[in-house]
Design a protein that fits this description.
Arc Repressor Mutant, subunit A, TrmB-like, three-stranded antiparallel β-sheet, Tscrpt_reg_TrmB_N, about 250 residues, single chain, eight-stranded mixed β-sheet, WH-like_DNA-bd_sf, Endonuclease, Chain A, alpha+beta, Transcription regulator TrmB N-terminal domain-containing protein, 9 helices
């Protein structure tokens, strides 16, 4: 292997290796002599010599009329490599912990029947907040008592809720039930925009409910997917109509 390649493998750039080898063979020399020996333009040689000087591989010879440069002992390279090795060794445990840390894998769960729906609502009640988007039409197969229970849980737990609803008769009646619940915000999608079922964003999960013809809920657990869906939700929320006062 050529010496220039050895130096490059040790961390020097191609021109740095050429200039350092030239100066090693010359001993002490001017920029002109180094440039000639290395086969590099003089203007470039100035820059390379300054870079090598900052790395401790070249020094300026003092007390001479014309600026002269001298190459440092090649062992400086070995010292530099040892210092880098020690630094990597110091932080190696941290790097390994990142490598071995469990990677998030999206999880998809399917809950069937009314009990499955209730299980997901229980998770929602225990979350730090939830964003609904959809319609309440047919979403409570448990009858009017289901809506009352929902309102009681949301009110008692005081979790922040936003609900983006289709502007239908059922949804407007539902909104009236929650008008005085301070932690529940409702907006209506613009005319012509709507949902055929209900969905919810909570934590790192998004749930899609189906109430007809089969009752089930599909839950995706993925922070990446939730972030994307939440961005779309924010756009829809900003353009939605707030619940009229009164």
């Amino acid at each position: 292997m050529e010496l220039s390649q050895v130096l490059e493998n040790a961390g020097l750039a191609e021109k740095e290796a050429k200039v350092y080898l030239a100066l090693l063979s010359l001993g002490t020399a001017s920029v002109y002599s180094v440039a000639l020996k290395a086969g590099i333009k003089r203007a470039t040689t100035y820059l390379v010599l300054d870079s090598l000087r900052q790395r401790g591989l070249v020094s300026v010879v003092p007390h001479v009329r014309k600026t002269q440069y001298s190459a440092s002992n090649p062992e400086v390279l070995l010292d530099d490599l040892r210092a880098k090795e020690e630094m990597v060794a110091q932080y190696l445990p941290s790097l390994k912990s990142i490598l071995l840390a469990p990677k998030e894998e999206p999880q998809v769960r399917l809950y069937q029947g009314e009990e499955g729906i209730k299980d997901i609502y229980q998770e929602i009640y225990e979350s730090d907040g939830v964003d609904f988007f959809g319609t309440v039409k047919g979403t409570f197969p448990f009858g009017p008592e289901g809506i009352k229970q929902f309102v009681r849980e949301i009110s008692a737990r005081q979790i922040p809720v936003r609900d983006l609803l289709t502007k239908s008769k059922e949804n407007q009646m539902f909104a009236q039930e929650l008008r005085h619940v301070s932690n529940y915000q409702i907006r209506f999608a613009r005319e012509g925009k709507g949902f055929s079922t209900d969905s919810a964003l909570f934590g790192d999960k998004v749930a899609f409910f189906s109430f007809a013809p089969q009752i089930f809920v599909a839950v995706i657990k993925s922070s990446q997917i939730v972030t994307s869906v939440r961005s779309l939700y924010e756009l829809a929320w900003e353009s939605a109509q707030p619940l009229p006062k009164g």
